Amino acid sequence: MSKKKENKSPFVYSTDPLYNPFAEDAPAEKTLPASEQLLRVTLETKHRAGKTVTLVTGFVGTAEDMGELGKQLKNHCGTGGSAKDGEIILQGDHREKVRAWLQKNKYRLK
User: What are phi and psi of 60, to 5 degrees?
Assistant: First the structure.
C-alpha cells in the first residue's frame, strides 16, 4: 500500500470460519469476597538489586480492587510499593504487619 492511501479498517483477514470480530471478549472478572480469597505473603530479594520486598500473591479479582487492597496495605505499613501483574509489592520486610492486617480483615492466608 502506498503511504497516501491508508487502510481505515482495523480488521485482519482470518481463515477461521467461526471467527467473529464483533464478539465481546471474556466476561469481566469479579472480585471474590475477602473470606474466599486465599493469599500468600512471602519475602523476596531476588531480581531487586538486593532490596527486600514483601509480596502478597493469590488475589482473585479486578486490577482496581487489587490496587485498592495494595493501597490499604501500604498505608497500614507506612511504606511504598505497587500492585501489578497479579501481586502486591511492599518495600521492606512487613510480613507480620501484613498478615495481622489481612487476618483482621477476614482474608485467608496460606
Answer: -110, 115
Give the fold, CATH level 3, of 34-109: Translation Initiation Factor Eif1 (3.30.780)
Q: Which residue has the cell 509489592?
A: 89
Quick check: 90 and 98 in contact, CB under 8 A?
yes
DSSP letters, 24-52, are --SPPPPPPPGGG-EEEEEEE-TTTTT--
Q: Which residues, in sequence order, are CB contacts of 53 under 8 Å at separation 6+?
A: 43, 44, 45, 81, 89, 90, 91, 92
Q: Is the pLDDT of residue 7 over 70?
A: no
The pTM score is 0.74
Q: Answer yes or no: are the C-beta atoms of 37 and 107 closer than 8 Å.
A: yes
Name the residue with cell 488475589. 59
In angstroms, the CA 25 to CA 37 distance is: 25
> Could you tell me whether strands 53-57 and 87-91 are parallel, antiparallel, or unpaired per DSSP bridges?
antiparallel
